[in-house]
Amino acid sequence: MIERLDRYRIEGKLGEGAMADVYRAHDPEIGRTVAIKVLKPEFASNADIGSRFLREARAAGALSHANIATIYDVGEADGIAYIAMELVDGRPLDRWIAANGRIPHERTVHLALQLAQALGYAHSMGIVHRDVKPSNILISEDGKTVKLLDFGVARMGDADPSALERTQVGQLVGTPRYMSPEQALGLPVDARSDLFSLGAVFYEMTTGKPAFPGGELAVLAIQIAQGKVTPIGEVTTDCPPGFRAIIDRLLAKKPEQRYADGTALAQVLEREVNDAREGGAVSRGLSLRFKVPIALFLVTALALAACVSVILHRQQQALETMAAATGNSIAAFITGNAAVTIAENAGMPSAQQDWTALQAFVTTAAQDDAMRGIVVADADGTIRASSNPRLIGRRYQSHDTESAILEQPDRRVTNVSDADGGGMRFVHPVNYAGVRFGTVDLVLKRDALNAALSTSKALFAGLSAAVMAVVLLIGYLSGAFVARPLRRLRKALDEMTAGDLTTRISHQRRDEVGEAFDAFNRAASTAEVRSASTPKPADTAVLATRIAA
Fold it and tell me: What is the mean pLDDT of the chain?
């Protein structure tokens, strides 16, 4: 292995092709790691091939595109022609497919668009690749980006007849499976030759299998020039008709039946990407009569759920505010009645304090059906009266962890959540003559409030069910309204495909569907006229494989 070439320090061999070896090298002048492509000795000794190699490489060096490996330098040292190019981090596409299998359609279309844009840019600069193949395409490790390599290198073989005789075998050894028919037959090539090769690459990306599987050169040449590829639909089911049609057109035997150049192909692929994005991932085989109502049902259900949730939340807040106002009135009444007794007892020694009257009042008040419990505590926090006699004499415990409904500086309303059905707690201070003498804590039942909320939920559920039923009905009728003319159009297209060019769609519609019917009728009329004026070929199979020289 060579250790140095010109100013480049060779670090190791990366691979080899039919006509050149590729090395990893370092450029000490700018501290950059590059890939060096060097002609093999049997070709480097031919001055014509060497000059052609450098001339085409310099032309390709003018290319600057995100999906083309950049050529940094072209030169000759010690009689060896070389190209210094961008060292791309990734794997050749053929190795990627061998390791991972076929590439999913969605990713294939995006990668195909990148390759078409790269070729379109090169074609606009007057450069024809002539050696498009998976091993000349590097794919990033995440599988989302590709770069095209070796622009112009395969163009050297047509320098003169003797050079062609020597190098065409070299080309066939390396790339016969992806050659265009005109390349295989030794005819002049242009940008459309690259597109045939690219079509073979797309086919392999989509199916995981080569378009032309022949193992011998003679068999491959016949397959490329005359054979038909196995239909993609027989190999994989996730490739939509649009992309299949693109690949079929790229693999047309006659150049004039392909796209004009990479730019034209990129435009078609952009439409395919946009169509896939707009179409989304919808399940196949489901009629519009069901797709439309299901979609409407889901959207309406989400909207109703959001609206009903907000309305019920607001209604609960309003009902709780009303209940809080009522509870505060009750708490204020109890506080007013307890204030005098608590104030009187507060000025007496403990032995002389009498809480009997207060306890009797609390017991009577607690008998109300809406009341769940009452606690009255003095200024020291000792419970002096309660609907639960066992609490009398104990320390009053505050309930700061309960969620607040209403909070004011001197009073608090909270939600009580427990196994007894919950309630609303009202905590009021007991004030007398501007002095606080204790606390009143009462809990009202939520039965009436919960019943009102349950009724509201039931009514909203019934309303939602009625709305959803109407939406389903409207959706079904709408889907059927659209599906019927589509079935009619499909039937007419099937008849036209079967050869009946006299098929027309009679209608009196004045909407978009009518415009589609009119477009079909115009297309059928045009096809009928052209069919009548075109003589029937004696052997279309032979003519389909004939290539204009």
Answer: 85
Q: Is the pLDDT of residue 158 over 60?
A: no
CA–CA gap between residue 436 and residue 343 (Å, rounded): 9
pLDDT at residue 184 in the model: 87
Is residue 418 annotated as a catalytic residue, yes or no?
no
Measured in degrees and rounded to the nearest 5, phi and psi for residue 38 equal: -125, 135
Residue 140 CA to its chain's centroid (Å): 19
Tokens of 28: 């000490």
Cα Rg of the chain, angstroms: 43
**Half-sphere exposure in the Cβ direction for 271 (13 Å, CA):** 8
Q: Work out the angle at residue 18's Cα, subtended by the Cα atoms of residues 17 and 20, and round it to the nearest 5 degrees.
A: 60
pLDDT in tens, 75-91: 888 888 889 998 988 89
Whole-prediction pTM value?
0.56
Q: Is 302 helix (H, G, I), strand (E, B) or coil?
A: helix
Higher-confidence position of 536 and 430: 430
Helix then strand then coil, in percent of the chain rounded to 5, is 55, 15, 30
Q: How confident is the model at residue 50 (pLDDT cuts 50, 70, 90)?
A: confident
Cα separation of 489 and 101, whole Å?
A: 38
Q: Residue 157 pLDDT more than 50?
A: no
| pLDDT attached to residue 265 | 96
Helix axes 191-207, 262-279, angle to 10 degrees: 30
Tell me the H-state helices in 425-511.
447-497
- Residue 153 buriedness (CB in 10 A; 0-12 / 13-18 / 19+): buried
Residue bearing tokens 């998976």:
134
Exposed (0-12), middle (13-18) or buried (19+): which is 254, by Cβ within 10 Å?
middle
Find the catalytic residue in 27, 78, 94, 131.
Answer: 131
Q: Given this model, what pLDDT does residue 282 score?
A: 45
Residue in the block written with tokens 């017991």: 363
- In the numeric block, the tokens 């991932």 are attached to 281
User: Which residues make beta-bridge pairs with 137?
Assistant: 148
Domains of the chain: 4-86 (3.30.200.20), 91-279 (1.10.510.10), 301-453 (3.30.450.20)
Whether the pLDDT of residue 458 is over 70: the answer is: yes
